[in-house]
Amino acid sequence: MFLSVFEMFKVGIGPSSSHTMGPMVAAARFLTLVRKAPFHPKGLRATLHGSLAFTGVGHATDRAVILGLAGFQPDTYDHARAEATLADIRATNMITPPGLDTMAFDPARDLIFDYGPALPGHANGMVLAATDAQGDVLLKETYYSIGGGFVMTAAELAAGKAADNGPPVPYPFKTAAEMLDMAAKSGLTIAQMKRANEVARGGAAGLDDGMARIWAVMTACIDRGLATNGILPGGLKVRRRAKGIHDALLAERGLNLTAPHVINDWMSAYAMAVNEENAAGGQVVTAPTNGAAGVMPAVMRYWLDHVPGASAARVPDFLLTAAAIGGLVKYNASISGAEAGCQAEVGSAAAMAAAGLAAVLGGTPEQIENAAEIALEHHLGMTCDPVRGLVQVPCIERNGLGAIKAVSAASLALRGDGQHLVSLDVCIETMRQTGRDMHEKYKETSLGGLAVNVPNC
């Protein structure tokens, strides 16, 4: 099993990796099929199913699909150009993807929200089609956005875990138990094993530069969020709060008037800054998803700015360790809120952040595994119930609390020797089973929980 650090941490746009980034990526993949086709379609059509339909408008899925079919991709997204393109498509009901002829696309007619049963493969399903002049389908493909910006066709999803056909890696661990065994036998840290796997699969060139870019985008997102006031889009009139909290914390600094627990407010401010940017459609890094994008950066910023001895030179170790843990969660369970609730998003993010922090604080592989397990265990059962389908309530504050739990988990683990009763593997399997048993209304459909008990306006 191999998932690159650059698959776990992707540069993209808000508000959702599964509902915004994934559909945009799926549309780009479909355009590649159309370009290879031996015919020239006259129109395009998209049908959204399951969670993509129920919360698609709040998550900007409609916008993402249209822009994806127009050639936009998350990692190179240009907001001003996107706005102009959307306006042109809506005015003309025509779309011109790169390398293809202009085709008919009426957003009101050709972007369909199907509120019936979800497609069989995953809660986040969509069908893209190319049509002739009469509207008859010439080519179609089913895509599933499985969380964190990962996209699979129906055939790829059916192939499942056997689909990895890349070059072999030196440390191919599929479970935390295998990871710890390989670390003990090799004498390497989790980060060192993960680095060796990255080099074997993708080469050494660009690895550290790529991780430096990931952290640069993360910390820039924090900075933008801490500098911006205003009301978030979507109709709930949620106020940005990160800047006000941060300004107050700066004003109090050095006055010896604050209690030690105020460090939690710093972590919350960092996390909320990211998720406010995400809710506004800004540039973020999936970690492992957009809905949980604030946890990792907040813990990393806390470590760098508040922990004595922290060094930016260790950022790659933090990211590599976190990616190794995130890969285990994704492979053996899920990082998708639509599949397993928020335990799979903020819970996974907290586990990854706790592991990364334990690593850079000198933890052993056993202590790192323990840190990840503690953080995930205490998110088990958490539902995904966004009010009005927006990634705002409870998502923004939830990232702050996820960061606090991650730091507490790492600290507890480092107080022990790594021996503990509940293994990370058992915790991940429990999360998978809990997600399977969780009622659909609590899995990113906005049909239960806070989404139906909080007024939408």
Summarize the topology.
Elements: H1 5-8, E1 11-13, H2 17-36, E2 43-50, H3 51-54, H4 61-69, H5 79-92, E3 94-95, E4 103-104, H6 107-110, E5 111-114, E6 124-131, E7 137-147, E8 150-153, H7 154-159, H8 176-186, H9 190-202, H10 207-226, H11 242-252, H12 263-279, E9 283-285, H13 295-306, H14 315-332, H15 337-340, H16 346-360, H17 365-377, H18 395-414, H19 424-437, H20 450-453
Parallel strand pairs: 2-5
Antiparallel strand pairs: 1-9, 2-6, 3-4, 6-7, 7-8
Helix pairs in contact: 2-4, 9-14, 10-12, 11-12, 12-13, 12-18, 13-16, 13-18, 14-16, 16-17, 16-18, 17-18, 17-19
Q: What is the CATH first-level class name of the largest domain?
A: Mainly Alpha
- The number of distinct helices, counting runs of at least 4 residues, comes to 20
Alpha carbon gap, first and last residue: 45 Å
Mean pLDDT: 96
Low-pLDDT stretches: none
Oligomer: single chain
Q: What count of structural domains?
A: 2
Helicity, as a percent range: 40-55%
| Lateral arrangement of strands in the main beta sheet | 5-2-6-7-8
Which fold does the CATH topology of the largest domain refer to?
2-methylcitrate dehydratase PrpD
Q: Could you tell me the number of beta strands?
A: 9
CATH architecture of the largest domain, by name, is Orthogonal Bundle
Q: How can the largest sheet be summarized?
A: 5 strands, mixed
**Proportion of strand residues:** 5-15%
Shape: globular
* Overall radius of gyration: 22 Å
Order of secondary-structure elements = HEHEHHHEEHEEEEHHHHHHEHHHHHHHH
Structural class, from helix and strand content? alpha+beta
